[in-house]
Amino acid sequence: MGNVVVSQFVSLDGVVEDPGGSEGWERGGWAFKYDRGPEGDQFKLDELMASDALLLGRVTYEGFAEAWPSREGEFADKFNGMRKYVVSSSIGEPDWNNTVVVDGDLSAAVEKMKAEHDGDILVNGSVQLVAALAEQGLVDEYRLMVFPTVLGAGKKMFGETADVAALTLVETKPAGECLVTIYRPRR
């Protein structure tokens, strides 16, 4: 059975918006101002290689679908070849290969994904989707690469919630100028 793993680049003040700078946000591109070192690169590669599928919101999916098909290498080959799920009510036929559109009951769709995959179901970006998954108790693990910057504005990893969400720290390790922290929800 697969696990839903939310993996995010996050600032010290919890911002996850536009770490790569491709969204045109005035404060975007902040993740590239820091060196995540070989440890961070290896962490991201290992994380991807242990994953069976990607679960993405529409906006993140569209950005990835535009950027990744033209890239080459071990990371790109895995990213492009693996099963991708995009949660959207407006995408008809997806352009990126091996993509399934999820439109409807998110909880039922995620439970079906978890039953179909043995490896991780990786969620990158997708702030609205992450909020919905968290609110429904569907996240099995959070992997945060924390960058030493305070952005002061932007979309946050966690917004207002209906209830307290207690987490258990699983691991913390340095990754260049960043810090990788892994948490699991307390259930």
Low-pLDDT parts are none
Helical residue percent band: 25-40%
Strand content: 25-35%
- State the major sheet: 8 strands, mixed
Span between termini = 18 Å
Number of E strands: 8
What is the H/E string?
Answer: EHEHHEEHEHEEE
Structural class: alpha/beta
Radius of gyration (Å): 16 Å
Give the neighbour order of strands across the main sheet: 4-3-2-5-1-6-8-7
What characteristic shape results from the CA principal axes? Answer: globular
Tally of DSSP helical segments = 5
- Average pLDDT for all residues: 94
Descriptive overview:
The chain is built from five helices and eight strands, in the order βαβααββαβαβββ. It has helices at 37-49, 58-67, 74-81, 106-116, 127-135, and strands spanning 4-11, 51-57, 83-87, 99-102, 120-124, 141-147, 167-175, 178-185. The protein has an eight-stranded mixed beta sheet, with helices on both faces. The longest helix has 13 residues, at 37-49. It is globular, with a radius of gyration of 16 Å. The mean pLDDT is 94.
Show the helix and strand layout:
Blueprint: E1 4-11, H1 37-49, E2 51-57, H2 58-67, H3 74-81, E3 83-87, E4 99-102, H4 106-116, E5 120-124, H5 127-135, E6 141-147, E7 167-175, E8 178-185
Parallel strand pairs: 1-5, 1-6, 2-3, 2-5, 3-4
Antiparallel strand pairs: 6-8, 7-8
Protein traits:
187 residues; alpha/beta; eight-stranded mixed β-sheet
Compact summary:
By secondary structure, the chain is of the alpha/beta class. The protein is built from five helices and eight strands; from the N terminus they run βαβααββαβαβββ.
